[in-house]
Amino acid sequence: MNITAQQIYDECGESAALILIDGEKAAKITGIAPFQASKKGDLVFVPDMKALEQVLEQGVSTIVISKKILEKASELASDVGILVSANLGYSHAKIKQKYGDHDDARTGWPPVHPSAIVHERVDLPKDVVLGPNVVIEQGVLLGEGCQIMANVVIQHDAVIGKGVTIHPGTIIGWECKIGDQCLILSNTVIGGEGFGYAQDQYFNHHRIPQTGNVEIGDKVTIGANCTIDRATYGSTMIGDGCIFDNICHVAHNVTMGKNCIIISGFLCGGSCTIGDRVVASGNTMIKDHVNICNDVYLMHRAGVVKDITEPGMYAGGPVLPMKEYTKNRAIYNRLGELRQQVMRLERAFK
After folding, report:
1. 186 and 81 fall within a common domain
2. Active-site residue, from 167, 252, 289, 300
3. Is the peptide bond before 114 cis (omega within 30 degrees of 0)?
4. What CATH number does residue 203 fall under?
5. 8-state DSSP, 310
6. What tens digit of pLDDT does each residue of 252-272 get?
7. Into how many domains does the chain fold?
8. Does a structural domain hold residue 152?
9. I need a surface site. Which of 201, 275, 277, 300 has the fewest CB within 10 A?
10. pTM for the complete prediction?
11. Average pLDDT of the residues in 79-98
12. pLDDT tens-digit series, residues 33-75
């Protein structure tokens, strides 16, 4: 990396929420670092005054700050490039994506590894990258700019959008659809068999074929070791912009809206409908056939067993509105004390 503060401002500007450049505009940047371990030549994202004082002691090239500390930064750091952001986290994401991201195509072998198995009727875009032992079955459509890493299997008639990166060991099931600019991490299974069985009079289990698919929107991230099951009929659907942590499960026929945040340990039963911008914290569990409206936050290992129809924060299992949950937790934490009070009252009335 060899760039100046002015170049970053010119190239990113409003697209990275940068609103102003100050200080040493010609400051040369050779890397991006956290404020805790910055050094000369680094660009650093500075969240507050304490961090500003620390990075100036350590020596940096350029800082990205919020407007609220601009006046102080201008006083203390006249020899440092100063980029002012309207949204520091957003600027961090966009600038590091552009200048500091890992190049997944940097493998050391040809773009299409000799061991990759591609069906003869599949047309590969010129800029696609296929790692060792990738399997691409018949009827697959691959978009431009895809990077498919080692040991990925894409089954027949799947559709993969443009600019999709799929990490090693992942399986994309037959006839599933992945939107543009998605990121799918290692050992994830999209479009595996949904869990559908019927029992006879002897409680023997009889498989109900799952002949639907999974459809994933644009700019979705699916973490490592996740499973999203194909529908019995129709589609299991994940909306645009959703982000999944590692080790999450979505069962068959679930419909999830846009821009949801799903944290590790999430388990969702089949045929649920989840709205837009739903946030599920770690170990959230949702019973099958439950509907959740837009703008719901599920906290503290939430267990959802019935529909949620009002936006807001819910917690516990079964879930309660956050205000009620907090009140009940406070009482629970005093149970020992309350028991002693009840025993004293019993003795007083004997």
Report:
1. no
2. 252
3. no
4. 2.160.10.10
5. S
6. 999 999 999 999 999 999 999
7. 2
8. no
9. 201
10. 0.89
11. 96
12. 999 999 999 999 999 999 999 999 888 999 999 999 999 999 9
